[in-house]
């Protein structure tokens, strides 16, 4: 039977092929439009990458389910033992703007847990990887989160997370807020200690965080939803209730400081 390492090798190859396709469109004024229901932008590049990933990955693993931001929902995935969870281009707004910080986020779930994961940034060549039984790596080198405390920590999050309403007693901790366009990349940046934490108090789509969550976990970070519960994937709604990703010390301090 195939193990996580077999799936990881497949995902790495697929992510690099996705990067080749994406870069054909990057800074070439790709066609783009807004999705219905304020779901954000999509480009012809997103769809081209998605089509190639679905063709290749499901061709290699026809018994796996498929969950992707750019595919119609397939309820059959809920009955599959393993399921691909894919964001063809995470950070589409950055991609449209010609910025470098977009990524391809590819993961395999077994049951409700992620067992293989890749986040690949094709412009910089940064390739984050992890399997359930191995280390988290960046371009083949192990990564670890920081051991920072909450005061002065660099936290990757959006502006509204600094509103007093979210924090116990209205006291916003003394962290420094930073931002990067790809949510998958934010989790990886926390995993490698370039930033101290990634935080979202909004519900997050599984395809944005599935790969990054395993990479951070295998790096040694504490990885939970915003209320401190273990993340579960391949769910009917395909959403997780926010996220806190940080070294164990900072994770605990953020969780204690948040409104329950």
UniProtKB/TrEMBL annotation:
Iron found in the keyword field: no
CDD domains: CysQ
UniProt xrefs under Gene3D superfamilies: 3.40.190.80, Fructose-1,6-Bisphosphatase, subunit A, domain 1
Record's keyword terms, sorted: Magnesium, Metal-binding
InterPro entries per the UniProt record, alphabetical: Inositol_monophosphatase-like (IPR000760), Inositol_monophosphatase_CS (IPR020550)
Statement: the UniProt record of this protein carries the keyword RNA-binding: no
Recorded family membership: Belongs to the inositol monophosphatase superfamily.
Designated name of the protein: 3'(2'),5'-bisphosphate nucleotidase CysQ
């Amino acid at each position: 039977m195939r193990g996580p390492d077999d799936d990881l090798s497949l995902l790495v190859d697929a992510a690099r092929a996705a990067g080749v396709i994406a870069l054909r469109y990057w800074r070439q004024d790709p066609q783009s439009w807004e999705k219905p229901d304020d779901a954000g932008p999509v480009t012809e590049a997103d769809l081209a990458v998605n089509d190639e990933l679905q063709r290749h990955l499901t061709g290699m693993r026809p018994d796996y389910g498929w969950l992707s931001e750019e595919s119609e929902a397939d309820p059959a995935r809920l009955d599959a033992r393993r399921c691909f969870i894919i964001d063809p281009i995470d950070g589409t707004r950055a991609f449209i703007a010609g910025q470098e910080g977009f990524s391809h986020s590819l993961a395999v779930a077994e049951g409700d847990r992620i067992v293989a994961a890749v986040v690949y940034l094709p412009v910089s060549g940064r390739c984050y990887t992890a399997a359930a039984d191995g280390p988290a790596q960046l371009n083949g080198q192990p990564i670890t989160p920081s051991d920072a405390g909450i005061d002065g920590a660099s936290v990757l999050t959006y502006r509204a997370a600094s509103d007093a309403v979210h924090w116990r007693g209205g006291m916003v901790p003394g962290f420094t807020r930073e931002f990067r366009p790809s949510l998958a990349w934010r989790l990886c940046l926390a995993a490698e200690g370039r930033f101290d934490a990634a935080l979202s108090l909004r519900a997050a789509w599984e395809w944005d965080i599935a790969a990054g969550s395993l990479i951070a976990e295998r790096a040694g970070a504490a990885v939970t939803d915003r209320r401190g519960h273990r993340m579960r994937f391949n769910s009917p709604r395909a959403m997780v209730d926010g996220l806190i990703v940080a070294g164990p010390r900072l994770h605990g301090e953020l969780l204690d400081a948040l409104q329950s």
